[in-house]
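Justification of resources, computational component.

The compute hours requested in this renewal are based largely on the per-chain cost of generating structure records like the one below. Each record pairs the submitted sequence with a full structure-token output. That output is archived, and it is also reused by downstream analysis tasks.
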Amino acid sequence: MPTVVPLPANARGSLHNAEEFLDWLEPKMRADLIGGKKFMHSPVNIRHAEIVNLVDTLLRLYVDEFQLGSVQRENWCVRLSARDVFMPDICYFTPQQRGLFQETHAPFAPTLVIEALSPSSGKRDAREKFAAYEKHGVLEYWLLDPDDRQHRFYARDGEVLTEFGEGAKRIESRAVRGFRVERAWLDAPTKFSLNECFRQIVRKR
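The structure output for this chain reads:
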């Protein structure tokens, strides 16, 4: 079992391990363990909530329709290493991965991770968490920007995640076959009917 490594006396706190962190979490609590340090999630703004709700609903309907695996929201943990446990906004697992879930978490990286940037966590999503997802085998990573609409999409190319879909009006997933979204939906999620968006995705599959 990984040990807790104490920091120097003049440093604040100590490093936590994954098992300790998972035991510490309680229902409805949202936090990440990044490099052994705990980071609590702050409440999100309405734009953040709306874009996550849109993408989550469309992806969940699509995965269910074609029996492609499992979609989880931010109350589900993924344990990447002894010092990294994340709670992504949205994550997708294949049917094979779903069969390996533990009671409270996935002990491996998702196939697809989607994070919506926020003032409190955006830098960590784009830096430390990006590097960890890349290192541990995530095949695709979406960084959605509810405020500035500078959405970025990354797919695995060997050992690294490289950007794709720059400037494209339609984003086609590399990890979930046939799943796609229009950039306009992401820019204004409440202006579009979820049912019509889903019908468009299925028609073009």
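DSSP finds seven helices and 13 strands in the chain. Helices lie at 18-24, 46-65, 95-98, 122-126, 128-135, 183-187, 194-203.
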